[in-house]
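Comment thread on ticket #2218

A.B. wrote:
> Attaching the input chain for the structure job we discussed in standup.
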Amino acid sequence: MNWSITGDRPVYVQLIEQMERAIVAGEYRAGTRLPGVRELAAEAAVNPNTMQRALQELESRGLVNTQRTAGRTVTDDAGRIVRLREKLAARQASEFLDAMRALGYDKAQTLALLEGLELSAAEQGGPRPNNQGGA
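C.D. wrote:
> Ran it. Output below, let me know if you need it in another format.
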């Protein structure tokens, strides 16, 4: 996993957000075992205690389960993952729309821009939106 930690917000919050994105994107699949705390901390270049705090929060949110003999696993509750994916997508869309309004775009102009970009990508054989999970 590619970690990106900045100094503008608490590190454990950034770890939680990045782990959530990895789970909804399927990088950490439902039901699979997560690497250990020390391994994840080394990958992210953070203190193991900070990674432990992030994992405990993910567990309290029901996204990660701790099993004595098997370590931590991603929840196998597909509905929970889908709901998180929808929540994250709505947040991204809201931030995008706020930024477009700040640039002076109205709804019609924003939609026209997006449609133009989608057509341009399709004509060039570029990546198409991923419609996985009904989003």
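A.B. wrote:
> Thanks. Noting for the ticket: The chain has five helices and two strands.
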